[in-house]
Amino acid sequence: MVNLVIVSHSPSLAAGVAELARAMTRQQPIVIATAAGTGDAQHPLGTNADEIRHAVETAYSGDGVVVLMDLGSAIMSAELALDLLSPDMRTHVRLIAAPVVEGAIAAAVQASLGGSLDDVANEAMGALAAKIDQLGQYQPQPPLKTKVTHPLAGAQDIVVTIENRLGLHARPAAQFVQTAARFQADIFLVRVVDETRRANAKSINAVASFGARQNEVIRITAVGPDASEALQALQELIASKFGEDGEEAAAPVAAVPVQTAVEAGAMMGVAASPGYAMGPAVMLHFAEPIVERQSIENAAKEWARLQTALGVVRTSTEMVRDQIARSANKYDAAIFDAHLLFLNDPEFLDSVRHTIETEHVNAEWAWKTAVDSSAQKFEAIDDEYLRARAADVKDIGRQVLVQLTGQGKDVQLPHAGILIAIDLAPSDTARLDRSKVLGICTERGGPTSHSAILARTLGIPAVVGLGPKVMAIADGTSLIIDGQGGKVLTAPTNAMIDDYTKRLKEWHLARDTARSASAAPAVMKDGTAVEVVANIGSTEDARVALDNGAEGVGLLRTEFLFLDRRDAPSEEEQFDAYQTIATVMGERPVIVRTLDVGGDKPLAYLDLGREENPFLGQRAIRLCLNRPDIFKTQLRAILRATPKHNLKIMFPMIADVTEVRRARALLNETRAELAAEKAPMADRVDVGIMVEIPAAAILAHVLAPEVDFFSIGTNDLTQYTLAAERGNRAVTHLQDALHPAVLIQIRQTVQAASVHGKWVGVCGELASDPAAIPILIGLGVKELSMASGSIPKAKQVIRSLNLKDAQAVAAQALQLDTAEAVRKLMKTA
Ligand code: PEP
Ligand code: MG
Closest Cα partner for 711 from 767, 663, 656? Predict the structure, then answer.
C-alpha cells in the first residue's frame, strides 16, 4: 500500500488535511504521517528536514510514499529530507507539486484503492482539475514533474517590458533566475499575449527558453510569504536593464560583428609564440561521447553518479567564471553563471531523475535525452540569438557526459589551418594532431598561460588573449597571424598576403638555420658553456625537445599524467611514463618536478573544495604534503626509474624550509620502503627546489644547504612578486619578469647558492626571452630551461655573447626602476 506524508508550516493545517484525507479512506486505511511546524513555541511556523525524513520512514512501505507539501521552504526541506533517505528508499518516494488539500484527498483515495506509486502521484497532480472545471477560472498549467506549487489564491502580479536589446537571453536570464531564487515565493513568467505560455522563474531552462524578446510585455506572478519583495527586486532588475547598457557594446558576443582594431579586420591580442602563419581558420572540436541506453537496477546509484559528474563540472565552471571575472569583465563571466544555473536547474534535474527512476535507464542516457530536448526547445524559438543558446546547453551537457563516460576528450581538427580555441589545456598537447596546426589563436590567456607555453613548446606561432570576438570567426575564414606582433588579420588584402608571404619565407629560413645549428652546445664567445634544456609535459614533447637540440629536460611537468581523468594515475602508469621519457632523452639529465596541481589546475578527484584565491591556496607541494598517499606513489615511481636513467627530483612552490625537510623526509621514507622491498634504485638522486615564491628567494641562503640545486620559476615568481595573476589580461602590464624586483631576487638566489656550491637554473618563460638571456647569464645562471621551440634561437643568442659583457649588462639592469627601462636597455645593449 502506498502511504502519504503531509508537510506544512503549520501543525494544525497538516493535522486538518490528514484528518480530511483519512475520512476518505475508512474502508481501507492507509498511513498518513505529518511533519509540520518548528517545535519552537516562539516561532512555531516552519518545516524541518529531519522531521520530514522521520515521517517518510514512519509511512514507508515497500510500495512507496507520496509527499505533499505546502509552499516555499517546505519544498526545500522536503527535498533535503529526500537526500537524507537511504538510496533505496529514495527511489520509492515522490515529492508532488499538487495543492495540499485537494492533492492529499485524491492521493489518499487512490492509495486506499491499492493504486501504484505512479497512479497515486498522477491522481494527486490532477486533483485541481475538477475545481477548475467547476469554477471556470484562470487555468495555470503546472509543468509535469515539477515540484513547485503553482499560483493559487494570494498571487501577486506585475507587468513589465523587457528592454534589453537581445531580450531575456542567457545572461539576463541567469540574473533573473538568481534573483528569483533568493525568495521563498513561487514565481512564474507569463506571456501576456498567450497566457498558457508560462515559465518557472527559478529554472534557467524555463526562463531562457521562454524567449522573451526586446520590448515584449510579460507578466510576473508570485505567490508566497515574500511575493511582493520578490516582485519588487525583479522589477528593479528589469528596469536596470540587467546592467547591460554599457557592457553590451563593450563586450561583443558571438552575434555581434568582429571589432576592428589597427587595420581593418585586424585583432590585437597577446604575442605568445613568434613566427607567422597563413591559412584557413579551423575551430577546435571535441569528439562526441557515445551514449547508449542501458537498463539499470539501482536508480539511486545512477543518480549519485550523475551528482558526482555535475559536481566536477560545477567546480571547473566556477573556476573559469572566477578567472574570467578577474581577467575580463563581469559581462563575459555572467555567461558562466548561466551555465551554472543550468547545472543546478531544479526543474531540469527533476526531469532527469524522473527518467532514471521510472524508465530504469543509465544516467548518461537520461541526461543526454533531457539535454537534447532542452536544446531542441531553444532551436525551435523564433529568435536568432536565443536559437544560438542551444549551443550553450549542448556544450555544458557535453561536459557532464565526458565526466560520466570518460570519453570525448579527443581533439578533432577537420582540416589543417589556424586553430581557434577558447583556451588550450596542457592535456590537449598530447591529443592535438600537430601536423594540422599552422598557428594558434585563443580567446583567453596571457604570455605565461598554458596555451602560450604549449605554442612555444611546439614552435607554432600564436596569439592568445584575443577576447570573445575571436570565437566569432567562421570556420574556413582566411587568416594571417603575426606571433611577434600579437596580431590576427581576418580579411587580408592582396597586398597583405604578399607582404606576409615574404615574411613567412624569411622566418622559415631563419628558423631552419637556427634548428640545424641547434644540435651543438651553446658556448659563448669566451668559451663559457650554458646548458640549454627543455620544459616538457609529455613523451611527445621529449621527442620535439631532442629535435630542437635540447641537452636534457630542466622541467618535466608531471601534471599531464594527473589532469582530465577520474582518478590519480597508478604507480605503474607513472613509472612507465617516466621511464619512457627518460629513455627518449638517453643519457641526458631529466628533472622530474613533483606534482604541481591546484591553483589554475584543479583535480576533480582530489576534492580540494572551493578556494577564494586558488593561486594562494593548496597548490603543488602544499597539496602533496597533505596527501602523502599521492605524493609517495609519485616518489616511488620516480625512484624506481632511477637505476637506468639520469633523473633528478624537484619540488615546486617551496615557501619555507620546513616544507623541504618534510618533503625530503617523505622521500627518505619512500626510499626505505622500496629498499625493504628490494626494489632497485640509484644510490643517489639529486634533489632540488623551484624558487618561485618571493619567500624562497629572500631566504635562499637558508634553503641552499638543504638542496642540490635551485630552478627559478619566473612565471610564478613574477606573479607573486608583483601580485599580478598569470593569465589575467587586465594586469598584463605587471607580468613582465624582467622587472628589477624579480631580477634582484634572481641575483640573491644565485649568490646564496654559490656560497654553498650549488647551481641555479631558470625554467620560467623568461629563460627563452632573447632580451633576458644576457642578464640571466650575467647574474650567474648556469642552466636555461625553456619550451623546445625556443631552443634554437636561444642557443644563437648565447653564442653571440661573452660573459664579461653579460655581467656588465646585468649589473646595469639591476640599477633600473621598471621592466620597461630594462627592456629599453636591452634594445640598445
Ligand atoms: C614557473 O612558475 O615559472 C614555472 C616554470 O612553473 P609553472 O609554469 O609550471 O607554474
Ligand atoms: Mg610555477
Answer: 767
